Structure formats: structure tokens, C-alpha cells
Amino acid sequence: MSKVIPGRFTAQVDGPFVVFIIGMRVNRFWQFWKWLPVAAAMGPMLKTLYSHPEKGFLGAELCLIWRGPMLVQYWRSFEDLERFAHDADDPHLEPWRRFNRRVGSNGSVGIFHETYLVAANQYEALYGNMPVFGLARATKHVPAIGNKETARRRLGLKGEPAAPSPPQP
Q1: How does pLDDT run across 98-146, given as a tens digit for each residue?
Q2: pTM value?
Q3: Closest by alpha carbon to 61, among 117, 9, 2?
Q4: Residue 91: which of 46, 127, 121, 58 has the closest Cα?
Q5: CA distance 56 to 87
Q6: Range of the domain at 25
Q7: 75-99 pLDDT tens trace
Q8: Where are the beta strands (DSSP E) in the chain?
Q9: Do 144 and 61 belong together in one domain?
Q10: CB of 48 within 8 A of CB of 92?
């Protein structure tokens, strides 16, 4: 289990980045031969990405949603993400092709992804009494004090806390 860090923290990212949400949905549970290979394909991809930071992958969080897994991924750029997705030497392109051949549009398993390009300083995050998590785990985990105390301040705007922040341990 991850160590809980008491206090309020935020993420600090230098420059723009990409948030990529990817997942699958089991539509026909009894057709496990359709969805199990889709689920199994993500492991080798993540192993490659974590082993090769030069590919631009910053980190990910696994979430379980109704009927399947979902990953929130953080990337240095859209170009890095797209390069990984299209490169025949990386473990994404072949499972993508296999999915299109074996599942296609038969409805047994769904896949989805959403891509968000985040401009420098156009994000904010807060983690209170949490393990290092999400964007802060993928980038930098810093105290949410001073100019990082409120959401407005983290976005570079002016604003006082609506409620006093607890003292930082």
C-alpha cells in the first residue's frame, strides 16, 4: 500500500503535457475470448512505457469502472503519444490491428480513449492526505502553500481561500 503523506500537495509540471484516458468496456461478459486479449494487451504496453521514459510517457493511474479497466495516462506531448501508437516496433500497433480484425464492430467489447492537450500552467491539482498520486506522481509532488494554496492561485490567478487551509505538517 502507498504511504499516505499528511498535508496538502499539488502537481508541478514544467511546460505543456497531454492527458490520455484509455479503457475498455466488457459488453458481453460470456464472450471472454473477445475481451480478454484486449485487457491483456495493456500490460506489455505499460511495461515498455515505464522502461523507456524517452518515449515521452510520464506515468499512469489505473481505475476500475463499471465493466472494465481505465487508465489515466500523462504524456510529454501528443507527438510522443501518437508515435508510440503508430510505431510497429512498439507493443500497441499489433494489438490495435488484432482488435480491428477479431472484434471490429461486433459489439462484444468496447474501447475508448480521450486526449487532452494541456497548455503550460493551464491545470491545477490538489491532493490532501494522499499518497503521491496522478499527475503529481507522473511529474512533481510539491506542497500546496503560498501561490499554490488555492485552485485560483495554482492557475496563476488571484484569490483567497474560501476556508482556511490546515497547517502543513
Answers
A1: 999 999 999 999 999 999 999 999 999 999 999 999 999 999 999 999 9
A2: 0.93
A3: 2
A4: 46
A5: 14
A6: 17-118
A7: 999 999 999 999 999 999 999 999 9
A8: 5-12, 17-26, 57-65, 68-75, 109-118, 127-130, 140-143
A9: no
A10: no
Q: Are residues 106 and 45 in the same domain?
A: yes
- Sorted by sequence, the CB contacts under 8 Å of residue 27 that are 6+ apart come out as 67, 107, 108, 109, 110
- What are the grid coordinates assigned to 158, written together? 488571484
In DSSP notation, 40-72 reads HTHHHHHHHHHH-GGGSEEEEEEEEETTEEEEE
Q: Are residues 21 and 63 in the same domain?
A: yes
111 and 150 assigned to the same domain = no
Residues 7 and 33 in one domain: no
Closest CA to 127 of 13, 6, 5, 8: 8
